[in-house]
Amino acid sequence: MSPPFRSPGLESPEQQLADRVRILGLTSALMILLGWGFYFYPFDNLLDGSGTPWGGDFPTFYIAGRMVLKHDLAQLYDVAEQQRRLQLLIPGIDPAYCIPYRYPPAFGLVMTPLAALPYGIASTLFAVMSAGLCGGSIALLVRATGLASGRWRATAWWGAATAPIVLEAIIGGQLSPIVVAVATGTCVLLHAGRPAAAGAVLALALYKPNVLALFGLICILRYPRMLWGALPAGLAWCALNVWLVGFDGALKYLELGRELALNDWSIQAPAHK
Q: Which of 41, 42, 86, 163 places its Cα 20 to 30 Å from the Cα of 191?
């Protein structure tokens, strides 16, 4: 990877623009990270100045993983129980603060390795892994688009990696980096002429079925052979959910998805989101 900027000298206007993009990206990223870090002042708990916990949305995944570890999945979608466990996990959090679990039961199983760790360590590791997914995805996209051999290689990488929307996903404990990694892996494998493998990667998006639904439909219509990989992987994911919570538990999740699709959410997202 090229350095974020070059030594000053006689450069073309295009190269000067590329350097400015990289410097702007790094400067804005540093300001965002420092501002976010100091927002936790006086650093006496896991809450920032707005009452948001360290890890953002991560507590809901952590709590789900703890439920799997303790074989206690009957209340996985019980908002009141999620609230009670959140209060125990992060003392001092606003009782009205709510981040209910809205994912398949098997995603809680995926989170069990992190849920076995203390929350502070687990949430930090999750952020590191999210950053790795984002960085790897951007590097693959840069290579797949042909920018890797051009003068804009470093600019494309640094510009994307330091974008505020990328940092927000990592800081906020969101699952967006997984979406980006799945979409990137699908595109790269299709570009390499491996539609079945691309379909298997695309099936990983079933952790939140609606997130890449249109993208997946378009890909499969264009490359029907993706189904050779997508169907087995999708069926395996469905079987894992049924094995974990039984048919009744799986139907409960499907009913929840239907309610969220047709009705107003009981928990509204903040306006700035």
A: 163
